[in-house]
Amino acid sequence: MAELQEVQITEEKPLLPGQTPEVAKTHSVETPYGSVTFTVYGTPKPKRPAILTYHDVGLNYKSCFQSLFQFGDMQEIIQNFVRVHVDAPGMEEGAPVFPVGYQYPSLDQLADMIPCILQYLNFSTIIGIGVGAGAYILSRYALNHQDTVEGLVLINIDPNAKGWMDWAAHKLTGLTSSISEMILGHLFSQEELSRNSELIQKYRNIIARAPNLDNIELYWNSYNNRRDLNLERGGDITLKCPVMLVVGDQAPHEDAVVECNSKLDPTQTSFLKMADSGGQPQLTQPGKLTEAIKYFLQGMGYMASSCMTRLSRSRTASLTSAASIDGSRSRSRTMSQSSESGTLSSGPPGHTMEVSC
Length: 357
Description:
Elements lengths: L2 E8 L12 E9 L2 E8 L8 E5 L6 H9 L5 H4 L4 E5 L19 H5 L2 H8 L4 E6 L1 H12 L4 E7 L8 H13 L2 H9 L2 H6 L2 H11 L4 H12 L18 E6 L5 H10 L5 E6 L6 H4 L1 H14 L10 H14 L8 E5 L15 E5 L1
């Protein structure tokens, strides 16, 4: 396994007074399934895992996660963790187009590239944050390498293989829609697409005008040919680390995420359904998602309560309200609040948390 490239870049974000630019290092390493590029921010912290992200189809690590990791309140998190942002092969900025006939790795093989990254960096454990295809890849990795994953934040995960009906619908859609439009339908809700907001226009241009669109199509095909994760609550195949499942209201993958929640250990799983967030919560609601991630990390023992912002002011009221809903619920509680309040509530350890915020 050899390093192919290492460059230094400066993260583009507004700096707070007295804050210095954060230096990132981009590396490429060879794996049994080809080269993979990843960017590292920060320095390793003693006795703390790295945060490792994996993006969805049609995006790279910047277009998928930049809004989230540049959000002001997220700085409290990134100061405490080294971050590794993985680009799927051929998705990194400036990536050359793969030659005709190139066999793109399957999602299982993309997951098998992660140990090469961790070995190169000499990192022993991670907390994964994945979106869509990236969430599937991190889940597959966690199933195969349980001892190296301390927690997972999975946005828009679909753990199921495509059925025959889905496959046929996909083929018919491909006859009338371009690859870029099909991917947009995967990323965003139909309501968002019909509104054609500035965000939609931005990402439509990013995908449709991408110089590596042929590469994106290969990643898209691998996603659509994914195997079933075969998750089973109480079975041998399950995610054994703490998991936070996230999906936006009316998102294309809402039903799949709900089904995934039903297959995981309720004592280890939190389910977060975000109102007013559409198909990409990390882009449209970075503040609320940051708050949820802080609580998730706090539950794992990595974030002190003093780091909380809006949540610390609302938690007492939230828990009091939640306690009155149904005291007989032993495994799951649902807490609903106005999206305008900007607050989230946290279920106690050992319970599934279902939140509309």
